[in-house]
Amino acid sequence: MARQSISRLALAAALLPAVAWAQPAPEALTDSLRINGQKVPVESVGETPLDGIYHVALKGGESFYANADGSYFVVGDLYRNQGDELVNLSEQAKNRQRVAALSAVEESDRVVYRGVDEPRATVTVFTDTSCPYCTRLHESIPELNERGIAVHYLAFPRGGMQSRAARVMQKAWCSDNPGEALSRAFADETLDAGAGCDNPVAEQHRLGLELGVQGTPAIILPDGTMVPGFVPPERLAAMLGLDG
């Protein structure tokens, strides 16, 4: 399994609100933005529907809104209030970011569980073999597959890369049959030490942090919406529009 480098350009583009740039981003934000006197690493700057207010994304995943010279910041979500509809534009941008980032992860670097028939929908799940609710979700995979839902796992050891779960998942990803090995790990069986390999566990952990994963399981729907925690198969099918 080759380790994949997530495209920074794709992430930056996904972060921007869905509006066209009318003019170049202010230099004060792109090249010389300072906070508490310290220059900060800016990933991208995009316009918002508010005149003179920009969306600033920092390297590492944090973002906020600022005026053109960076003298004022607003931290939080930006909403559009129109008629009887309240739309979280910030969350929409995060969803686009997740879709772009996950599209850069090769299927060979995922552990995939799909049914016999062609999946009707696919969810991506950041998982941890030491997490009880991840185990519960894993036990529901046969039912999910029967409902037409394929599950693509990415590794997210909650305790970091020095944790036992990280070592277990590295063994699973390096095995000849990662799906079988991961199922054994969820069943609390000991995996063979193996020879190791150039595995993607550390990179997937970093990606999860960038995308705002705070716990496991973290289920990412096809539109980029993140659903934290265990979700029963029937409820997940309903979220995917497959309950009919």
Architecture (CATH level 2) name of the largest domain:
3-Layer(aba) Sandwich
Radius of gyration: 20 Å
Q: What proportion of the residues is helical, as a percent range?
A: 25-40%
Walk across the major sheet and give the strand order: 9-11-10-12-13
Q: What's the overall geometry?
A: globular
Distance between the termini: 38 Å
Tell me the total number of β-strands: 13
Along the chain, the helix and strand elements come as: HHEEEEEEEEHEEHHEHHHEEH
Q: Which fold name corresponds to the CATH topology of the largest domain?
A: Glutaredoxin
Can you describe this structure?
With 244 residues, this protein is α+β, with helices and mostly antiparallel strands. Helices cover 32% and strands 22% of the residues. It folds into 2 domains: 8-102, Nuclear Transport Factor 2, Chain: A (Roll), CATH 3.10.450.70; 108-239, Glutaredoxin. The protein is built from 9 helices and 13 strands. A 5-stranded mixed sheet has the order 9-11-10-12-13, with helices on both faces. A 4-stranded antiparallel sheet has the order 3-4-5-6, with helices on one face. A two-stranded antiparallel ribbon has the order 1-2. Helix 1 (8-15) packs antiparallel against helix 3 (89-103) and helix 6 (164-174) runs antiparallel to helix 7 (178-186). The relative contact order is 0.15. The model is unreliable at 1-22 (pLDDT under 50). This is Thiol:disulfide interchange protein. Residues 22-90 form the Disulphide bond isomerase DsbC/G N-terminal domain.
